[in-house]
Amino acid sequence: MRVALTGATGFTGRRVVAELLRRGHAVSALVRPSPARRDLPAGLARVEGDLADAHALASLLREADALVHVASLGFGHAEAVVSALESAGVRRAVFFSSTSLYTRLPAASKGVRLAAEERVRRMAGEWTILRPTMIYGDAGDRNLSRMIRFVARSPVVPLPGGGKALVQPVHVEDLGRAAVDALTCATTACREYDLPGADPAPLRELIDHVARELGRRRFVVPLPIRPMAAVAGAWSRVGLPPRISAEQVLRLAEDKAFSYESARRDWGYAPRGWREGLAAEVRLLRDERRL
Predict the structure, then answer these.
(1) Over the range 122-145, which residues count as b (16 or more CB within 10 Å of their CB) and which as e?
(2) Which of 9, 201, 238, 278 could bridge 205 with an S-S bond, Cβ 3.0-4.6 Å?
(3) Where in the chain is the domain with CATH 3.40.50.720?
(4) d(CA 59, CA 107)
(5) How far apart are the first and last CA of the chain?
């Protein structure tokens, strides 16, 4: 199959590219002129441009049989991408959204994602929407690798809400395989799937597990959510690191646990659990001397 791809240089996109090539598909990627292009595999055809470039999208899709849109639907390009698919006559596509649209908070990205998903459902062709949870897997992730490094260097871990809410992170390698499985499985057409890891747990339990893997004792200090959100909001406006928004702090009070039964039923999705994944990431970060 000739597969067009967006988001190829990203954390998840690189895994999708590798999995497509491993299974023998011909892959063309939309890439911006950036140093990240140097890390793409040699067997990948490249179209220079971005999602706002109608000519580049048309070139990307000209001879494609399908599209995997790894670039998130939260970026606001759904109309341009779906219109380009329809104009090119490409009738099969997989789109990445996010379980973050289930938040009860008035997040700005929630409306964008909901509208984008609705546009995808109206496309002329067979679509599939994938909603991963928090993605992790190596030093390139922006989620659990930061947590691991913090736990490694700090004997005290301040945690808004005490880490009682559930999380269910998904490993990036499992997500890369899932994207290609969903593309090539006939039963996924015009369906949508939540893609979490194998099992949920309180965030506090993940932190305790990392501390044990590191062989270090850590003291978690629970902090009140709303005052910490106010502090985070003021801090982010100043622009100093660490960059954490008020919304991110408030979401620590929300359970983020999801079923993947429909994906298991339709293509055998079987993600790894967070204990296995975190232990492997700790070992990787140690091997790369990042801890």
Answers:
(1) ebebebbbbbbbbbbbbeebeebb
(2) 201
(3) 2-132
(4) 34
(5) 41
In the predicted model, residues of the chain with pLDDT beneath 50 are none
Task: Flag whether the pTM goes above 0.90.
Answer: yes
Q: Provide CB contacts within 8 A for 10, sequence distance 6+.
A: 70, 71
Q: pLDDT tens, 121-165?
A: 999 999 999 999 999 998 888 889 999 999 999 999 999 999 999
Identify the pLDDT of residue 93: 98
The C-alpha atoms of residue 110 and residue 169 are separated, in whole angstroms, by 19
HEC readout, the chain: CEEEEECCCCHHHHHHHHHHHHCCCEEEEEECCCHHHHHCCCCCEEEECCCCCHHHHHHHHCCCCEEEECCCHHHCCHHHHHHHHHHHCCCEEEEECCHHHHCCCCCHHHHHHHHHHHHHHCCCCEEEEEEECCEECCCCCCCHHHHHHHHHHCCEEEEEHHHCCEECCEEHHHHHHHHHHHHHCHHHCCEEEEECCCCCEEHHHHHHHHHHHHCCCCEEEEECHHHHHHHHHHHHHHCCCCCCCHHHHHHHHCCCCCCCHHHHHHHCCCCCCHHHHHHHHHHHHHHCCCC
> What does residue 66 show for φ and ψ, rounded to 5 degrees?
-160, 165
Peptide bond into 227 cis (omega under 30): no
The CATH number given to 136-170+198-256+272-291 is 3.90.25
Residue 79 CB neighbour total at 10 angstroms: 11
What integer pLDDT is reported at residue 243 of this predicted model? 67
CATH 1.10.10.10 applies to domain 2-132: no
